[in-house]
Design brief:
Distance between the termini: 32 Å
Shape: elongated
Order of helices and strands: EHHEEEEHEHEHEHHHEEHHHEEEHEHEE
Largest sheet: 6 strands, mixed
Helix content: 25-40%
Number of strands: 16
CATH architecture of the largest domain: 3-Layer(aba) Sandwich
CATH superfamily of the largest domain: LigB-like
Strand content: 15-25%
Number of helices: 13
Number of domains: 3
CATH topology of the largest domain: Protocatechuate 4,5-dioxygenase, Chain B
Length: 538
């Protein structure tokens, strides 16, 4: 599953004064550490980790700085300065993989210096130094694999849950301040997934895959940025990317912001994607960025920069408005920008509309609500509120009984949702094999535009049909094991039943759902099979 790869031939650093030797972007999941032999992709990530470990050992690094999104702080930014933290860590979600004993070596002087530099740039910061402090999974995995012998001291910095882009950029610049003040060279490590929509139920190692086609699409785009060394461009585009990868949440896309700021905010890097694989549905990659004169230098994007943090934590800022709030911070409208009459907080309007419209959740309803929200709010935030309310409605349960549209399933060909919940049951509309990405038919259509018959693969169509059902069920927080009844429609029973039945058994033999298979004359699109299911609701 390796994505775009590129390693520039540019030689040397941009400057001998650059305090960062190279940066690494690595996944936080324990699978490469504890179970690399259980899945080929996990093993490839482990091998890539080993390559990076060797490069760190061969470098002139004085310190490894780790920014882990799995250490979410709330009160300011925190820095680990316990000289030798030692404990046994067990991951909350993947405890079945085993425990992770660790003993690390921290650079206490640097941690304190980093705190001071952060405070000097306007951030609230503190150090952490007591025995037994629970170091997070991401930091444990990264340091265990990249620096197993503690040859190089480390500094672990938290990812503040409420810190926005400006705050995170300032945190990165403070790291450069501290490195220059102490005359140290660093390898920096951002610990985070690419897409991080994970399966909500256990999957066997051999069944691990990227959660959805949309996640895979955006993962590949992000990997292209990394491979081209365009770190600052990625940082500036990251909010838009993140919003399409998964439902937006407060962690936003901080690793790119911090990494870009710590490495100098440019695009002059040798980018190398060493490995890319699925980790329980999320996208995990091991990437190295090295300053170089041979990489892309011009920025495609030009968001305003900020040197000092002066308040505001509008972490859900969409990035669509100008960055001209006081202090250069990307924040909400100040008083001068608000209309004099009838101004309301957009979130309040969203909530009111949400309550008013109840269970209207199909895509058309989302658009209608978005328009209503935009009209209800005067001024430049109307569009933003409309966007928020549309996202809030489409593809989400609005009530116990209601309809749902799954964002990663093929679009409906009529006025119906993908699914509807009634009580403790889910009713899934008839689902065909069409691809949700480009509407193509896996295995080929059964006829051309003129109605002439074509050869097709019923097994491929059946597999795709079941996969689309799986995606819809996951949007309903269910899976194939919850299916209790299946109705299948075949346009050619004599030709296709055997192949269809073989694929069906592979997925449903253990589930033992009831089934009815019908021969029909035609389906609305040139496909050979369609399935509709009833499932237990979560």
């Amino acid at each position: 599953m390796l994505g775009p790869q590129r390693r520039n031939t540019g030689v040397g650093s941009l400057s001998d004064d650059d305090p960062v030797l190279f940066g690494l972007y690595v996944p936080p999941h324990p699978h490469p550490l504890l179970a690399p032999d259980q899945n080929q992709g996990w093993g490839e990530l482990r091998a890539a980790y080993d390559v990076c470990r060797q490069r760190i050992e061969e470098s002139e690094a004085d310190i490894i700085i780790v920014y882990s999104t799995t250490w979410p702080s709330i009160v300011g930014h925190q820095f680990q300065v316990q000289p030798e933290p030692e404990w046994v860590h067990v991951d909350d979600d993947f405890h079945f993989l085993g425990s992770m004993p660790y003993k690390f070596r921290m650079d206490v002087d640097f941690g304190q210096g980093y705190r001071d530099a952060a405070e000097a740039r306007g951030l609230h910061a503190r150090t952490v130094a007591y025995h037994g402090f629970p170091i997070d999974t991401g930091s444990v995995v990264a340091l265990s694999l990249l620096n197993p012998d503690n040859r190089i001291p480390a500094c672990i910095v938290s990812s503040n849950m409420y810190g926005n882009r400006s705050e995170t950029i300032v945190l990165g610049k403070a790291a450069r301040d501290a490195l220059k003040a102490q005359g140290k060279k660093a390898v920096i490590v951002a610990v985070s997934s690419l897409s991080n929509r994970m399966f909500t139920k256990h999957v066997e190692p051999e069944d691990d895959r990227i959660h959805s086609a949309k996640d895979e699409e955006w993962n590949q785009k992000i990997l292209e940025f990394f491979a081209d060394g365009r770190l600052e461009d990625l940082s500036q585009l990251s909010r838009d990317i993140h919003g399409q990868i998964r439902v937006q949440k407060v962690v936003a896309y901080k690793p790119a912001w911090w990494m870009a700021a710590t490495m100098g905010q440019h695009n002059n890097y040798d980018g190398e994607v060493l490995a890319y694989a699925a980790l329980h549905g999320s996208g995990g990659a091991v990437i190295q960025l090295t300053p170089s004169t041979g990489s892309i230098g011009d920025k495609e994007f030009d968001e305003d920069d900020v040197e000092f943090y002066r308040g505001d934590r509008n972490v859900l800022d969409s990035g669509t408005r100008d960055m001209d709030a006081p202090g250069g911070v990307d924040g909400p409208l100040d008083e001068a920008e608000r209309p004099d009459d009838g101004w309301r907080n957009p979130i309040e309007v969203v909530d009111d509309l949400y309550d008013e419209y109840g269970s209207a959740v199909i895509s058309q309803a989302g658009g209608a609500l978005g328009a209503a929200a935009g009209a209800a709010i005067a001024g430049p935030v109307g569009g933003m509120a409309g966007n928020i309310v549309a996202k809030k409605t489409v593809g989400k349960w609005m009530s116990k009984d209601g309809a749902i549209v799954a964002e990663n399933a093929p679009g409906a060909v009529g006025a119906y949702p993908h699914a509807r919940r009634m009580g403790n049951l889910l009713f899934i509309s008839g689902v065909g094999p069409r691809s949700p990405v480009d509407n193509s038919v896996p295995g080929g259509p059964i006829e051309d535009e003129d109605g002439n018959p074509l050869e097709y693969d019923i097994k491929a169509q059946t597999e795709a049909c079941i996969e689309n059902i799986r995606v819809i069920l996951e949007a309903c927080e269910a899976d194939l094991s919850d299916v209790v009844d299946v109705t299948t429609f075949l346009v050619d029973m004599k030709r296709d039943f055997k192949g269809y039945n073989e694929v069906y058994a592979k997925h449903f033999e253990e589930i033992q759902a009831t089934r009815t298979t019908l021969a029909i004359q035609a389906l609305p699109t040139p496909i050979a099979v369609e399935m509709k299911v009833i499932a237990k609701a979560p």
